[in-house]
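fold-stage: in
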Amino acid sequence: MAKNIQIIIILLTLISCQSKQEKLIGHWHEFKTNNSEYLNCYKITDSTIGINSLSNGGYDDNRRGSDIEQSEILSLANDNYNWTSDYKISGNKLILNDSIFWIKQTDKKKSFLSDFSAGLLLEIKPFESDKSEFDFKPNDSTIGNYIFVGKLKNSILNKYKKYDKEKYYIQLNDKIGQTKDIIPFLLCNHCDMRKQLVFMHVDRDTPKELLSEMESEMEKINVRKRQIYFLTINTVELKSGYNHSY
């Protein structure tokens, strides 16, 4: 998150005229030179920044991926970071330095689907539905935990030979875990687990046996099925939300 904020600060602190700000507004994918897998997704309006909002969720208490007001980011910058104005925009490409660049996206099915894996170790294509309304209705007090399930990205497989490219893995925060790690990840000694929500970002081809095992683990600490929501998408209307079933 700190890295994401620092990159955004580079752009936002030096917006001095409306024309330059208008060039920044849009949907961007961040790449490293010589790497085809993009690192992060940014959605910039004239007042807010969304960072990996589809893959990291926007309802947890750390506000990962939620819309952050530019004034709030600048306040964090004054306390914690230094920045530079050394960047340029040419057409649909924004160049930060020799190793990092952004490409502006057209909002369509391909970019919509890819955003669900932004910032993750996994590739995730969520469950699909033809509905435009979803079971979960977020509010300002919603707090939940996010669990991700999918196949590992090629960059991770190339770096760590111990992993299997055909296997489905569980990601907890920024680490790969196992089913047995779910309870320590979720458990809160001072919380009523019957009131906690769990948001599952699951690849649609994940074996049902694995999902059943995960639900069984959660039941051991009184997390019931009614507390578990699965990320679901409508690829026609380009909408996403959470449903109880998959």
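fold-stage: in (second)
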Amino acid sequence: MATTRRTQQERRVHAEAALLNAAAELVVEHGVRSLTLARVGERAGYSRGIVTHHFGSKQALLERLARSTQAGFVPGLADLPPGLDRLLRLIDGYVGALGDAGTMHRAFLLLWAEAATASDLAPIFRERDEAFRRDLRDDVAAAITDGDVPPDTEPDDVAVAVVGQLRGIGLQRLLDPRAVDTARLRHTVTDHWRQALRPIDVGGGDGHPYQIPR
């Protein structure tokens, strides 16, 4: 019985992955307006009924797609403590990953842009952006505590600016890949934030100026 349950679970995971990938492909190729459960099932090689069985509705499918595309986009961050180093690594890794963004992430960016005028998508992407900003705010707040960022820095403002910049670069990359050299740009953007968040050089308690990690 245990073996049968594991096999069923594996089949479920495989089917859901195939359906999400099919949905992402359709969004990239034809836009979210053309996305239907029937088309997703057909693209994945299943019936519409199995799409409904797994997700229940188009809205639930889009919510799952939005969550799954962001998971692990920048690897190697989970083991890093919040702080300036983690923030800069996230920025660098995000821009770098845009150079080889797969179908899932391209679909996320298109859906994110669509959410500005689509009431059914807006709540999903407001929640995803808030989660992203919260992660960035934690890094900035920790960096302030560590003395790596000026104490008058506003974590909320930094988070909004970083998310806007990263998402904007991603959309530009989708529109005109040749105009956005992510291999070079990642260093430019990361260095911009390293410099922007640098504390003013003043004497520390030990007589030495504050230094920002590089």
